[in-house]
Amino acid sequence: MAKHSLDKDKIKILLLEGVHQSAVDVFKRAGYSNIEYHKASLGEEALIASIKEAHFVGLRSRTQLNETVLSQAEKLVGIGCFCIGTNQVDLDFAEKLGVPVFNAPFSNTRSVAELVLGEIIMLFRGIPQRNAMAHRGGWLKSAQGSFEARGKTLGVIGYGHIGTQLGILAETLGMRVIFFDIEDKLSLGNAQQIHSMQELMSLADVVSLHVPETPQTQNMIGEAEIAYMKQGSILINASRGTVVDIDALASAIRSEKLAGAAIDVFPVEPKSNNDEFFSPLRGLDNVILTPHVGGSTQEAQENIGIEVAGKLAKYSDNGSTMTAVNFPEVSLAQHKNASRLLHIHHNRPGILIKINQAFAEKGINIAAQYLQTTAEIGYVVMEVDSDQAEEALEQMKAIEGTIRTRLLH
Length: 409
Ligand SMILES: NC(=O)c1ccc[n+]([C@@H]2O[C@H](COP(=O)([O-])OP(=O)(O)OC[C@H]3O[C@@H](n4cnc5c(N)ncnc54)[C@H](O)[C@@H]3O)[C@@H](O)[C@H]2O)c1
Ligand SMILES: O=C(O)CC[C@@H](O)C(=O)O
Fold this sequence. Notes:
Elements: E1 13-15, H1 21-29, E2 35-37, H2 44-51, E3 56-59, H3 67-72, E4 78-81, H4 91-97, E5 101-102, H5 109-124, H6 127-135, E6 153-157, H7 161-172, E7 176-180, E8 192-193, H8 197-203, E9 206-209, H9 223-228, E10 233-237, H10 246-254, E11 258-263, E12 287-289, H11 298-318, E13 339-346, H12 351-361, E14 366-373, E15 377-384, H13 389-397, E16 402-408
Parallel strand pairs: 1-2, 1-3, 3-4, 4-5, 6-7, 6-9, 7-8, 9-10, 10-11, 11-12
Antiparallel strand pairs: 13-15, 13-16, 14-15
Helix pairs in contact: 1-11, 5-7
The protein binds nicotinamide-adenine-dinucleotide and (2R)-2-hydroxypentanedioic acid (2HG).
């Protein structure tokens, strides 16, 4: 097991939003016992108080790691988003601080695809409104507005990990699948790429959104886009709440332009299960409202816990940053018979030369060296003899442009 310049029991790991026990198990197996665990997200004040002493923080989609919070997190070494989305973290600011952000890009994608498939069937059959009526004592036994999914067209917007899996699942029901993506994508099954979103929306019986939150996807579906959709079609959003203009959707449901919708994500979501959920969609029986649970299955959460905790423990133990979303990616095996120095710096010309010069002047032998950069920062990993490591660390710290350094024995 790697020795650290800081003992492992002094490394504080802050876990928020009830991340799965599998994450705690991974950290404990890796020797990290100083874990502060919270079942819910923390308000900004409490978050700042807890994150101040934390070396690693793990969160899901509710916690906002903005500039104000990150500025107070002076000891922070790494961030783990125990989900796919990373929009809740100010990634650029974290990068400037030299803090890599990791996520779980695949682990819950099947869960989302399965939920959406189920919603497609339910909405085509008009089940949400029949269910709601039955709960109120009504009885809506009629084939009116009730259809099979077979033979209908599914339009997927954002044909990534979720969109592709949904497409394959929908084809097994006999649906025709078309998709729109800003990238040219390999079509799986018989799916067909459509190069205009407007055209896709006018062809599909059900449109399902699977795009990330970006400036381009902000309110991507509003009144004008809904107007292109087929009369009596269905809209599903399990991506991010900012993608759909909810007022426009509510009025399309009321006017019966759309026959139904399923929405899992909202522009403003309650901070905890004890807070009230407000939405213009409340009370519309043909809209399935779910509390951002697309990826919330036992299978997904357990796998995410293992994946993200594993990435954080690895970065802590040996400096590996593979799959970090805001940071130069370096894949490193465990170091043996040497100490490893990690140097994060502003990406300016000549820094590596300066480090090498400083080491040469002090007679520090470099056993291995790795460098990766982004436009903003550079990440150098060096291996030196352990008896020269402290001296090497001092030399590195003195280099102009250094953001932070770490020493792993
Ligand atoms: N509801 C949930 O619980 C839940 C769970 C997991 C993921 N998500 C959300 O779903 C999103 C998609 O997940 P994924 O794993 O499929 O991501 P992904 O990155 O694999 O796929 C996203 C796709 O969207 C495309 N895209 C990006 N911008 C676009 C645009 N403006 N127009 C059209 N296409 C665009 C990309 O090229 C990519 O193919 C995530 O970003 C996350 O926000 C929600
Ligand atoms: O678990 C969560 O809170 C977020 C789930 C989902 O939106 C994701 O981004 O993976």
